[in-house]
Design a protein that fits this description.
Blueprint lengths: L1 E6 L21 H5 L5 E4 L9 H10 L7 E5 L2 H6 L5 H16 L3 E7 L8 H13 L5 E4 L8 H9 L3 E2 L1 E3 L17 E6 L4 H4 L6 H4 L6 H16 L3 E6 L6 H14 L7 H6 L19
Parallel strand pairs: 1-2, 1-9, 2-3, 3-4, 4-5, 5-6, 7-8, 8-9
C-alpha cells in the first residue's frame, strides 16, 4: 500500500552521496537503488520513448525485489509539444510500457503538463484525447495550473478512474499549491522542492532548479497527507524530485520514517553526507560501517 522513491535514479552528483564512489563490478545503479526503495519514476521516457530492451533490462535489475514498481513519464511530444500524434507515436510509447506492465512492474503512466497548460476547451479536448489513447494503463495526471481544480474536470478524471497527482512546487502566479484530491484508488504525490528563486528562471540549470532540502516540518505535512490517503484505503506513491546532491533520497528516507515510525536502511555514503540520517537509520542494516 506504500511506495516511496525518487524521480530518476541516475545522477552524477549522487556518486559518493547515495551510491558508493565505485559500484561493485557487474552491479548496476538501479539494482543498488532497489536495495533501499521500492519505487522509482522513470524520467528518460519524457525525452524519448523507452525501448523494450531498456524495460527488459530494468525488470532484470530489480528481480530480487518482488514489491518494486515503476512509474513512467509520458513522452513530451504528447504533453509539451502538443502538435499532433497518431498510431505510430502511441506504439513507440507502448513498446517499453507493455514490458513493464506484463511483468507486473508498472504502477502508473504519468502524464505531466507544464503550468502553461491551463483549462480551456482546446486543452481539455487534448487531455481527453491523450487519456483515451493510453487508457490501457493506470494513469496519473499532473496539472500545475489551478484553473483545472473545478468540478467538471475532476469528475472527468474520476469517472475514468484516473488519478490526479498531488504536487508540491514553488507557487508562482496561477500555480497549483499543495492540494490533495483523491479521485481513484491510487494517491500519487510528487515533491518538486520549493526553490522559488530558480523555478522559473530561464537561465537556471536543472540542478539549480531542483536544489532544495525539505525541512522536518515540511516532511511532516507531507506525511499527514499520505496518512490520510492510507487510512482511506488508498495505495500511496510518494516521489521526491528535488534530486540535486542526493536531497531526494535523503528526504525520501525522512518521509518514510516520519510516516511509518520505522527506521529505513540508509547507505553509509548518505549518513556521511547528511549526519542527521544517523538518527533514523535502521541499526542492523547489513554491511554498514561504524561511523561514529
Amino acid at each position: 500500500m506504500l511506495y516511496i522513491g525518487t524521480a530518476g535514479w541516475s545522477y552524477p552528483d549522487w556518486q559518493g552521496v547515495f551510491y558508493p564512489s565505485k559500484l561493485a563490478r557487474g552491479s548496476h545503479h538501479l539494482q543498488y537503488y532497489a536495495r533501499f526503495f521500492n519505487f522509482v519514476e522513470v524520467n528518460t521516457s519524457y525525452y524519448h520513448p523507452q525501448s523494450a530492451q531498456a524495460s527488459k533490462a530494468w525488470v532484470g535489475h530489480v528481480a530480487g525485489r518482488d514489491d518494486f514498481q515503476f512509474s513512467v513519464k509520458l513522452w513530451q511530444k504528447f504533453v509539451l509539444e502538443r502538435t499532433t500524434f497518431g498510431r505510430e507515436e502511441v506504439q513507440l510509447v507502448r513498446a517499453g510500457l507493455d514490458i513493464l506492465q506484463d511483468a507486473g512492474r508498472l504502477s502508473a503512466l504519468l502524464v505531466q503538463f507544464p503550468q502553461s497548460f491551463k483549462l480551456d476547451l482546446e486543452n481539455r479536448s487534448w487531455l481527453y484525447r491523450i487519456l483515451t489513447a493510453f487508457k490501457m494503463y493506470p494513469l496519473v495526471v499532473e496539472l500545475r495550473h489551478k484553473s483545472w481544480l473545478q468540478e467538471e474536470s475532476m469528475r472527468m478524471l474520476e469517472d475514468n478512474k484516473i488519478s490526479l497527482a498531488t504536487i508540491d512546487q514553488p507557487v508562482i502566479g496561477a500555480g497549483l499549491p499543495l492540494t490533495q484530491v483523491d479521485l481513484s484508488k491510487l494517491s500519487y504525490f510528487r515533491f518538486h522542492g520549493r526553490n522559488e528563486k530558480m523555478w522559473f528562471n530561464e537561465d537556471a540549470s536543472r540542478d539549480e532548479r531542483y536544489d532544495y532540502d525539505y525541512a522536518p516540518d515540511e516532511i511532516a505535512t507531507f506525511a499527514e497527507h499520505a496518512r490520510a490517503s492510507i487510512e482511506g484505503g488508498k495505495t500511496v506513491v510518494a516521489i521526491f524530485n528535488n534530486h540535486f546532491h542526493g536531497q531526494a533520497p535523503k528526504n525520501a528516507f525522512e518521509f518514510s520514517h516520519t510516516l511509518t515510525g520505522e527506521k529505513p536502511p540508509v547507505p553509509d555514503e548518505m549518513v556521511l553526507a547528511y549526519r542527521t540520517l544517523a538518527e533514523i537509520r535502521k541499526p542492523d542494516f547489513p554491511n554498514q560501517m561504524e561511523l561514529f
